[in-house]
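note to self: dont lose this again. the chain is below, predicted strucutre after it. 227 aa total, dont forget to put it in the shared folder this time
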Amino acid sequence: MTAWPEVCSSLWHQGYGRIGPLLAREECEALRACYAEPAHFRSRVDMQRYRFGRGEYQYFAYPLPALVANLRQAIYPHLAETANQWMDALSLPGGFPTDLRAFLRHCHSKGQTRPTPLLLRYRAGDYNCLHQDLYGDVVFPFQVVVALSRPGEEFTGGELLLTEQRPRAQSMGHSIRLEQGEGVAITTRYRPVEGSRGFYRTSMRHGVSPVLSGERCTLGLIFHDAA
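---
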């Protein structure tokens, strides 16, 4: 069972929180098999073409596969309270509902109607440049990455990278290795840090270090839809 208070505490202090196992091996393999079935997806992106890195990913189409939809629905409420606390700390608009369906209705009312969960595939030499996943004016501050491949067996390299840029300071980085089926919640764009005059934002980006061998597949769960 996931210790969600610990996950959320880690998000406050580091900008990410390990969730632990979310998917069994057979579920990981079933999602990986989806990658070769175009009917599941609305678009495919070649990262090298857009200078995002090297590798590719595909955005799921609605209706999402049940496994993806259920996971997205189950995780969101555990993060919504912390999301609102972050917005309050930074004096930013929040008001995220505790139910994902209500939040998605809000996204759709703002013209953000395209689903954002995605599958990413990297092979030897592939990588993902540091970036943020925003997609529109309505942005949920957290997203979840789930590993679908076995590190050390099916691929080497390919660590999840996070960088944090604090005002008037050099960047700090985190390198995260995920086991197959393990999930981690990360901040979408920044986190609040308490200073002498209250909270301030520190900008964060995420990416993937070069895959040295094999194939690395991950599931990305982004909670806001895209414009």
